[in-house]
Design a protein that fits this description.
The complex is a heterodimer of chains A (about 500) and B (about 350). By secondary structure, chain A is of the alpha/beta class. Chain A is built from 18 helices and 20 strands. Chain A folds into two domains: about 1-245, 3-Layer(aba) Sandwich (Rossmann fold), CATH 3.40.50; about 255-495, Rossmann fold (3-Layer(aba) Sandwich), CATH 3.40.50.300. The longest helix of chain B is centred in the middle third of the chain and has 27 residues, at about 110-135. Classes of the chains: A alpha/beta (about 500), B mainly alpha (about 350). The interface between A and B is medium-sized, with 29 and 22 residues.
C-alpha cells in the first residue's frame, strides 16, 4: 500500500495562540486517487491544506512526496514539489486577463510573449471545456469561470498533487459536472487529488477515499463504498444521528393577506429586472435558480443594496421608500450577503465590533453603544450561537468560515429584524453549522420573523422553506408550494419546458 | 484601569510598541550623551513670565503643529486608505485668513482673535471638504486629489493678503504662540492636549472610530451594513481641515506674521511619517491616534537630538532618514512576524525545560 503512496503526512501538529488546530494528524494520498477531506468547521481541514501548501509551517511531523522527505516552507516550495492548490476563495487577480492569470509568476523568460501565452491558454481552456477566452479580463468572468481558470492554472503546472478547496461551492450543476469530468481525467493521468467540500453527494459521486477530521484530530480513513452517508455525517459531527433525522418536513402554514409583512410591485434595480414579491410574517421562503438567474440580485434590490430603479414597496401595508441599505434596516430588514469575505466581515475588527456593527449603524452616529453593553451583546451571541473564538476581542478574520458566518448572523439577529434575508448562509461551512443555521431559521419563523433563505443546495431549501420562488434568466418563472415542493418539481421548473 | 495595565503586561503594547520603544531609546541615548539634556529650568521670558525652559520643553512645544496634523491625518488615512499631501499649503491658507481677519479691524481684542480663528477653521474645513469630495464622490486617489491643493494652496494664500506678509502685533496672538501670562507651559502644548481630549470625547460620544475603521477595512461590507462610506470619508477630510486650521493659527502666532511661502513648509511628509511611525497602516483600516501623536514627538526628538549633536543642518535630513528607515523596517510585518516566532520559540523552550527535569 505504502508503495503507491504519492503523498504521506505523518504526525502533523499545528499550534495557534490558544488553539491546537492540528494534533498528530496522518494523511495519505495515493496516485490516481480522488480523496475527500471531510470535517466540520474548525476541524482542521483548511489548516492541514495550508500546512501542505506552505502557507503555514507545521509545528512537528513530516511530509513525504513519493517516499522522499520534503520540507515545505513557502507556497513556492509546495509548487516545486508538484503540489498545487485551488482555494475556496478565488485568489487570482481580477484586473488581469485570463491568460495572464494562468501564467503569471511561472515564466522564466524575461520577455512577455502575450500572443503565445494567449494561444496556449485558449488551447488549454478548450481542452478543459471552460467557457472563457485567454484575452478576457478575469474580473469580467463569472465566479464559476474564475474558479475554473484557477484549476486550469494548476493543471497546467503538471502537478502531482492537486488540492481543490471547496471548488464547487460557487458552481452550478452543469459546471460541477464539467469539473468532475476534468477531475476524472486528471485521475486517469495519475494525479492525486485532495477534494475538500461540504457537499456530501459530490463526495460519493467522485471520490475513492474519505479522510475525516474532527477538532484537529484524525477520525479515520475510509473507502467511499464502505462508508454510508449517514455514518460519514456521524463521524464528522461526532453526535447522535437522531438529532439529524429528527429534522422533519416543514409543516404547512396558512397565511392570510393580513399577515403580509413585505410587498413589492415591479421592483427593479440596476441589476434586477422588475419583479413582484411578497412575504408574510413567520414565513420562510426561498429564491432558487441557477447561478446568474438573478436570485441574489432580486434580494439585493429588496434590501436596497444596488441602485433601485423603480417599483413600489409596502411594509405592513404602508408605502415605504427603500433605496439604501439603511432604509431597509430602519424598516426592520436584515441582509446577510452572499459573499461573506467581500460583503460581510470587517476582517481586522474584533468579533465584538463585528457583532454590534449593524445595530450601531441603526442607532446612529451620535449614540454609540457603550463598551460594557457591546461586550454583553457579544458574550450573549457567542454563547447562543456557539461561536468558537479565542475571545470576543479576536479579529474576525482569524476565525474559521462557519464561525465568521455565525458572527455575521449574530450581527443581524442583534438588530431584531422583522424580515431577515439570508443569501447563501450555509455556503462553505460544515454540516453541523448548516443544521444549526437551518434550525435557527425555523425558530425565527416560529417567532414571527419573515425569512428569505437562499441556498444552492435545493435539499436544504426544501427542508426550510414553505414557498420557493424559481428564477431563470433574471425572471421569476415559477412559485412552488405545498405538494409541489419536491426536488423533481424544482428541477423541472428551473430547467424550464413543459411545467 | 487596573485591567488596562494587566492587559498591557499580558499582550504588550501592540501597535504602540515601536513608537514607544523609539522614544525611550532616543531619550536614553540623549541621557547618556548628555545627562543634562533633559534638564528643565524655570526662566523669566521677555514678557516677565516665569516659564519652563529646556530641550524637552522646546521639543514638545515645537512638535505641536505636527502632532495636531497627525491626529487628523490618522483619520483620513484610516478612512480613505490614502494621505492628504496638501496640509502644509492648506495651513498657509488658513493662516492667511486668520491674519486677514485680524488686520481688518482696528484694535485686536479677544473677540476679533476668536472670530479670526473661526474664519480660519471654516476656510480650512471648506478646503478639506473640497479634497474630501474629490476623494469620496469622484473616487480620485487621495494623493492625486490633494496634489491640486498642494500645488495651488500657497498661491491662494498669497492672494488673500495681496501678496504681503503682514505682521500681527498683539499680546493675545503672542500668548497663543508663546505663553499665557501666569502659565509656565507653552500654549501650543496646551492646545495639543485640548485637541487630544476633544478627539477622545468625539470617539466616546460618537461611532466615528468604528465607522471609520469599517469603511477603511471593508468598504463594501460597511455599505451593506448601512454605513454611508462617502460621508465618512468626506468627514475625515473635513476634520483634518479643522486640524489644519489649528496648526496654521499656531504657526502664525509663533512668528507674529504670515509668510505664505514658509509657513509649515514640508510638514505634509512629516505628518504622514508620524502616522506611519505610530504603527498605522497607510493603506487604511484599523488605527490608533495615540501612535501618530507619539510618532510626531519621535520625529522632533530626533531632529533636536541631531542639532544638539552639532550635525550641520544640511546633513540633518540624511541622518533623520537613516533612523526612520530603521524604525519603519522594525515595524514592518516581516520583522514583526520574526519577533513573534522567536518569542514563541523561547516560550516553548521555557515550557519544555521543567518537563525534562521531571523525567
Amino acid at each position: 500500500m505504502a508503495d503507491h503512496a504519492l503523498l504521506e503526512m505523518r504526525h502533523i501538529n499545528k499550534l495557534f495562540p490558544g488553539v491546537k488546530a492540528l494534533s498528530d494528524v496522518d494523511f495519505t494520498l495515493r496516485k490516481g486517487e480522488i480523496h475527500a477531506l471531510m470535517g466540520e468547521n474548525g476541524a482542521g481541514k483548511s489548516t492541514l491544506i495550508k500546512v501542505l501548501t506552505g502557507v503555514y509551517q507545521n509545528d512537528g511531523g513530516e511530509i513525504r512526496v513519493e517516499g522522499k522527505n520534503i520540507s515545505i516552507r513557502s507556497p513556492q516550495d509546495a509548487q516545486n514539489n508538484g503540489i498545487s492548490t485551488v482555494y475556496q476563495e478565488i485568489t487570482l487577480c481580477p484586473n488581469l486577463t485570463v491568460a495572464e492569470n494562468m501564467f503569471i509568476g511561472r515564466e522564466k523568460d524575461v520577455f512577455v510573449h502575450n500572443r503565445r501565452r494567449e494561444k496556449r491558454a485558449n488551447e488549454l481552456l478548450g481542452e478543459l471545456g471552460i467557457p472563457a477566452r485567454g484575452s478576457q479580463m478575469l474580473g469580467n468572468c463569472s465566479l464559476a469561470v474564475q474558479q475554473m481558470v484557477a484549476i486550469a492554472r494548476a493543471v497546467d503546472m503538471n502537478c502531482k498533487v492537486l488540492i481543490l478547496d471547496e471548488p464547487t461551492s460557487s458552481l452550478d450543476d452543469k459546471e460541477v459536472n464539467v469539473l468532475f469530468g476534468l477531475m476524472r481525467d486528471l485521475k486517469a493521468r495519475g494525479v492525486g487529488i485532495i477534494f475538500v467540500t461540504h457537499f456530501l453527494e459530490q463526495v460519493y459521486e467522485v471520490c475513492d477515499r474519505i479522510t475525516v477530521l474532527r477538532n484537529g484530530e484524525l477520525v479515520g480513513e475510509y473507502l467511499t463504498e464502505e462508508l454510508p452517508q449517514v455514518q460519514l455525517v456521524a463521524k464528522m459531527i461526532g453526535k447522535d444521528l437522531d438529532e439529524i433525522s429528527s429534522f422533519g418536513e416543514v409543516e404547512e402554514k396558512e397565511f392570510s393577506d393580513a399577515d403580509i409583512f413585505y410587498e413589492a410591485k415591479k421592483l427593479s434595480s440596476s441589476d434586477a429586472l422588475p419583479f413582484d414579491f411578497e412575504i408574510h410574517k413567520g414565513e420562510v421562503n426561498g429564491f432558487t435558480g441557477l447561478l446568474g438567474s438573478g436570485r441574489s440580485e432580486s434580494v439585493r434590490a429588496i434590501f436596497g443594496a444596488d441602485k433601485v430603479n423603480g417599483g413600489t414597496v409596502k411594509i405592513n401595508g404602508k408605502h415605504v421608500k427603500i433605496t439604501k441599505p439603511i432604509d431597509a434596516m430602519k424598516n426592520g430588514i436584515g441582509y446577510l450577503a452572499e459573499d461573506r469575505k467581500r460583503d460581510g466581515i470587517i476582517a481586522d475588527l474584533s468579533v465584538r465590533e463585528n457583532i454590534i456593527l449593524a445595530l450601531q449603524v441603526m442607532k446612529g452616529f451620535f449614540k454609540p453603544i457603550s463598551r460594557s453593553e457591546s461586550e454583553a451583546f457579544a458574550d450573549e451571541y457567542i454563547k447562543v450561537l456557539n461561536i468558537k473564538t479565542a475571545s470576543r476581542e479576536t479579529p474576525i478574520g482569524s476565525l474559521s468560515g462557519g464561525n465568521q458566518q455565525k458572527v455575521i448572523l449574530a450581527r443581524w439577529l442583534l438588530t431584531h429584524p422583522d424580515y431577515l434575508i439570508l443569501d447563501e448562509p450555509t455556503r462553505g461551512i460544515d454540516v453541523g453549522t448548516k443544521l444549526e443555521i437551518q434550525k435557527l431559521v425555523l425558530k425565527l419563523a416560529e417567532d414571527g420573523v419573515a425569512v428569505t433563505f437562499i441556498s444552492s443546495e435545493i435539499e436544504e431549501m426544501l427542508r426550510t422553506c414553505s414557498r420557493l420562488i424559481v428564477m431563470r434568466d433574471r425572471r421569476i418563472v415559477g412559485e412552488l408550494k405545498g405538494s409541489d415542493l419536491n426536488q423533481a418539481q424544482v428541477m423541472k421548473t428551473i430547467a424550464g419546458g413543459e411545467s | 484601569m487596573k485591567n488596562n495595565f494587566k492587559n498591557i503586561f499580558k499582550n504588550g503594547l501592540g501597535q504602540l510598541t515601536i513608537p514607544i520603544i523609539a522614544i525611550l531609546l532616543l531619550v536614553i541615548f540623549n541621557l547618556i550623551r548628555d545627562p543634562s539634556f533633559f534638564r528643565i529650568t524655570i526662566e523669566i521670558d521677555n514678557a516677565g513670565n516665569r516659564v519652563l525652559a529646556g530641550n524637552l520643553i522646546s521639543i514638545i512645544n515645537a512638535a505641536s503643529e505636527l502632532a495636531i496634523l497627525a491626529m487628523g491625518m490618522t483619520l483620513v488615512t484610516a478612512a480613505s486608505g490614502g494621505q492628504d499631501i496638501s496640509v502644509g499649503a492648506a495651513a498657509a491658507i488658513a493662516g492667511s485668513a486668520f491674519v486677514k481677519v485680524l488686520k481688518s479691524g482696528g484694535n485686536i481684542n479677544g473677540l476679533i482673535v476668536l472670530l479670526a480663528f473661526v474664519v480660519a477653521v471654516i476656510v480650512a474645513m471648506c478646503f478639506g471638504a473640497f479634497n474630501g469630495t474629490l476623494v469620496s464622490i469622484f473616487k480620485i486617489q487621495p494623493m492625486i486629489a490633494t496634489l491640486i491643493l498642494f500645488t495651488c494652496g500657497r498661491s491662494i494664500a498669497y492672494w488673500i493678503n495681496g501678496g504681503a506678509t503682514p505682521t500681527v502685533d498683539s499680546s493675545i496672538v503672542k500668548a497663543i504662540g508663546g505663553f499665557i501670562p501666569g502659565c509656565p507651559i507653552p500654549t501650543p502644548v496646551l492646545i495639543v492636549i485640548a485637541m487630544a481630549i476633544i478627539f477622545k470625547l468625539v470617539f466616546h460620544f460618537t461611532s466615528l472610530e468604528l465607522f471609520t475603521q469599517s469603511v477603511g477595512i471593508n468598504g463594501s461590507a460597511a455599505k451593506l451594513n448601512g454605513i454611508n462610506s462617502t460621508w465618512i470619508k468626506l468627514l475625515s477630510f473635513i476634520i483634518l481641515g479643522a486640524c489644519v486650521a489649528v496648526a496654521g493659527c499656531i504657526g502664525v502666532s509663533r512668528l507674529g506674521l504670515i509668510n505664505h511661502e514658509t509657513l509649515l513648509i514640508d510638514i505634509e511628509m512629516d505628518t504622514i511619517l508620524a502616522v506611519a511611525i505610530g504603527g498605522n497602516s497607510l493603506g487604511g483600516g484599523k488605527f490608533k491616534m495615540a501612535g501618530s501623536i507619539i510618532g510626531a514627538y519621535v520625529i522632533h526628538i530626533l531632529t533636536v537630538t541631531l542639532y544638539a549633536m552639532k550635525v550641520p543642518s544640511t546633513d540633518v535630513k540624511a541622518y533623520k532618514a537613516i533612523v526612520i528607515i530603521i524604525l519603519v523596517v522594525i515595524g514592518s510585518p516581516v520583522i514583526k512576524k520574526w519577533f513573534a516566532k522567536t518569542a514563541a520559540r523561547i516560550k516553548n523552550k521555557k515550557a519544555s525545560a521543567p518537563m525534562k527535569g521531571a523525567q
